[in-house]
Specification:
Elements lengths: L2 H7 L17 E4 L2 E8 L1 E2 L2 E2 L10 H22 L7 E12 L7 H21 L2 E7 L8 E9 L1
Parallel strand pairs: 5-6
Antiparallel strand pairs: 1-2, 2-7, 3-4, 5-7
Helix pairs in contact: 2-3
């Protein structure tokens, strides 16, 4: 099953290339490696403002991280010349989770993105290294920010 068949089966439409909110590029490619800048969680087209341990729970956070992964896939598609089937491997995700000092489930929040990436690309191409950090704040108050590194064929 192609990446696009899987996306269609999941009912996912990819967004257009995300426009940077500051002085950076949405992605940079060097050789076959593509590095996607961090994408923040959005809800109803606006930053999904929340802080874990205060006003959002882990299950909602998994949905936020999944939404970020969909945005990342839109950017990755652009980086791959319009064809996600060119992705040889998703190498790494790095997740920043806006959380209070006593919130310790950043890894579970980030599973929302990791599980979708693995489902879309399959075990061979979608299994990736990962870091998940709790941070005191993210730009615009967003609850989650994730960046992605992939290898293209």
């Amino acid at each position: 099953m192609s990446v696009y068949d899987k996306l269609q089966a999941l009912g996912i439409s990819l967004p257009p290339l995300a426009v940077p909110a500051a002085a950076y590029l949405p992605y940079v490619q060097t050789g076959n490696m593509v590095f996607l800048s961090g994408h923040i969680a959005r809800k109803d087209g606006k930053p999904w403002v929340a802080q874990f341990g205060r006003n959002i729970n882990t299950e909602e956070g998994k949905l936020a991280a999944r939404a970020v992964a969909i945005d990342l896939l839109g950017t990755l598609q652009h980086a791959a010349g319009g064809d996600l089937n060119r992705v040889k491997r998703v190498v790494k995700l790095m997740s920043l989770v806006n959380s209070t000092g006593d919130f310790t489930e950043q890894h579970l929040v980030t599973n929302g993105a990791s599980e979708l990436i693995a489902e879309v690309f399959g075990a061979d191409k979608g299994a990736h290294a990962r870091s998940a950090f709790g941070v005191a704040q993210i730009p615009m108050g967003a609850c989650v920010e994730i960046e992605l590194i992939a290898e293209l064929a």
